[in-house]
Design a protein that fits this description.
Order of helices and strands: HHHHEEH
Shape: rod-shaped
Structural class: mainly alpha
Number of domains: 1
Strand order of the largest sheet: 1-2
Radius of gyration: 33 Å
Number of strands: 2
Low-confidence stretches: none
């Protein structure tokens, strides 16, 4: 019988091929990871730019709202003591009623935060402190919205029904001059005044948080440039 000749295994060549395959797979894995990290970094930068834009907008809105409330409070404060003492004049009473027949609500931007939460990308922000500050900032915005909504409900449920019952919009005056010395009138004005004070206080706290977050995000922006 003829013996079958088995070729000798070229171990060196086989080992070299295994090393080449290993390096190829490893390189592909590292390249894929690098591309994903680069993509995540670009997405993080996009969100950070959005947060900077939102905070900048909110600062302008809050400053304008605080200034408006300050003017209103200063103007109305001079009428509180005469209302309390029952010495308010008919013209002054009409003037302050005209000041409370409208209400405004601040519109703070949260679009970037809503986007990152809805997409599940919050953890793309690598810096834990910055991420926590951003989350706390938007929780604070919810608090401001609560104060705004509470004020709006007071305006809708208490102020406007009283105004429609006692104030002639066509003539621009209170129909019965006697009511300006009533407890109901005093409570109405004092309640509205208190609501504006609370709202302004919430706005001031929110403005400080906005400045703090802006200060945190600014160095990142400078670094990127």
């Amino acid at each position: 019988m003829n013996r079958v000749k088995i070729p000798a295994i070229e171990w060196k060549r086989l080992l070299l091929e295994l090393i080449v395959v290993f390096l190829g797979v490893t390189a592909g894995f590292l390249l894929n990871n690098w591309q994903m990290e680069k993509q995540d970094l670009r997405l993080e930068e996009k969100y950070m730019a959005g947060f900077r834009q939102d905070v900048h907008y909110n600062i302008d809105e809050l400053k304008a709202a605080i200034s408006s409330d300050s003017s209103w409070l200063q103007n109305a404060k001079s009428k509180l003591l005469p209302i309390r003492d029952g010495t308010i004049t008919f013209d002054s009473a009409n003037a302050i009623v005209k000041q409370i027949i409208s209400i405004s609500k601040i519109n703070l931007q949260t679009g970037t935060y809503q986007d990152i939460i809805n997409s599940g990308n919050l953890n793309i922000i690598n810096n834990f402190k910055i991420k926590k500050q951003i989350v706390d900032y938007h929780v604070a915005i919810s608090g401001v919205e609560f104060v705004d909504n509470y004020f709006y409900n007071y305006f809708s449920d208490i102020v406007m029904p009283y105004i429609f019952s006692n104030f002639s919009v066509l003539h621009g005056r209170i129909e019965d001059p006697k009511i300006i010395y009533s407890v109901q009138f005093a409570n109405l004005i004092a309640g509205y005044f208190s609501m504006v004070q609370q709202r302004q206080s919430a706005y001031k706290e929110m403005l400080q948080k906005s400045y703090d977050l802006e200060g945190t995000l600014k160095p990142l922006h400078t670094l990127e440039e």
